[in-house]
Each structure stands twice: as structure tokens, then as C-alpha cells.
Specification:
The chain is 62% helix and 0% strand. The protein contains 9 helices and no strands.
């Protein structure tokens, strides 16, 4: 990640009506996150991406805890510190413990994962490495998930790979109060 943002968040005085409406809908705790203010430089893209991102984050058929395992492993694999930091907070709200979050960095072979959790982490790794979930991992996921959930696994990792690429390339800075990667 660059040491300084390549694209600065769009200053509030430069928000037109469209950007004000878009960013108003993204506020978390009364503030607009750097990712949204940065992408506000391209409001038409932001508007359409928010619909897809909202599906993956809030309307997916995958449970929140399992979704966060996928997202955090993807953020780790992509070396997206912004994504990691934001989703540590979200992951804790979804029920992940500090120990589990630390273990995500070690991957599916770390002791303590259930076989299904390990399969989710392997799926994120395989999609990152091969752009495909391998047959054994697919079978492990399909033993519990239906077709829509399997599709949501692929699109969750894909969405957060895309976001990680944007965050890393644009140099989006961590938001105030958000920690980056563990030491």
C-alpha cells in the first residue's frame, strides 16, 4: 500500500447533490468512511457499486460470521489493511473472537477451526490463488450450503478482492480509530 493516499477523499465542499445523497446513505456512526469519500470522485460507479456491496454485506444468504471469515481472509490475502481493519470491527460484531481473528492470518490449517470454517478459509485462499474453488473444498461447502450460498461465497470473495484492489491502488487511508494488520 502506498505510504500516502494516491486519491484523497473528496472534500465535503466539493460534494454536489448527488454525492451528498450517496454519502449520506453510507454514514456509519455519523461519519463517512474514507473508502466512500474516495470513491465519491466517481459518483456513478459508487452508486452502482453500493447496490452490489450492500447485497454481499447485508443481504447475502451466508451468515454474518461465515461471511466475515471470508472477507477477513480475503483482505489478508490481498494485503488490504483498510479492509482488514474495518472488517475486524464488523467481524467482532458478527461474533468472531480476537483469537479467531488472529487465526485467520494463519489460514485454514490453524488449529481450532471447525471443518466447515476451514473449508470457508480454503475457499477464500483457492479463489485468491486459482480463481476457482477446488473440488474438495466445493464438496465440503456443498455438504452444508445450497446453490445460492455457494454463489454468494464466490461473489463475497470476488467483491472483497475488487475492493482490496481499489483500496490498495488508490491508497485509501485507515479511518480514525481503526487498526491495521496485527504485528
Amino acid at each position: 500500500m502506498p505510504t500516502a493516499p494516491r486519491v484523497m477523499p473528496l472534500p465535503r465542499e466539493d460534494w454536489d447533490a448527488e454525492v451528498t445523497e450517496l454519502l449520506g446513505a453510507t454514514q456509519m456512526g455519523g461519519r463517512t468512511l474514507n473508502i466512500f469519500q474516495t470513491l465519491a470522485h466517481h459518483p456513478k460507479l459508487l452508486k452502482r457499486w453500493l447496490v452490489f456491496g450492500n447485497h454481499v454485506l447485508a443481504k447475502s444468504t451466508i451468515g454474518a460470521r461465515e461471511r466475515e471469515l471470508l472477507i477477513l481472509r480475503t483482505g489478508w490475502n490481498c494485503r488490504a489493511e483498510y479492509e482488514w481493519g474495518q472488517h475486524v470491527v464488523i467481524g467482532k460484531m458478527a461474533g468472531l473472537t480476537d483469537d479467531e481473528i488472529r487465526r485467520i492470518t494463519a489460514g485454514s490449517d490453524a488449529p481450532g477451526w471447525t471443518p466447515f470454517e476451514a473449508a470457508l478459509l480454503r475457499a477464500a485462499d483457492e479463489l485468491h490463488r486459482d480463481s476457482r474453488i477446488g473440488d474438495a473444498t466445493w464438496a465440503a461447502l456443498a455438504a452444508r450450503y445450497g446453490v445460492q450460498e455457494l454463489i454468494d461465497v464466490v461473489f463475497t470473495v470476488g467483491q472483497y478482492t475488487l475492493v482490496s484492489m481499489a483500496l490498495n491502488s488508490l491508497g485509501v487511508a485507515l479511518d480514525e480509530g481503526i487498526e491495521g494488520f496485527p504485528e
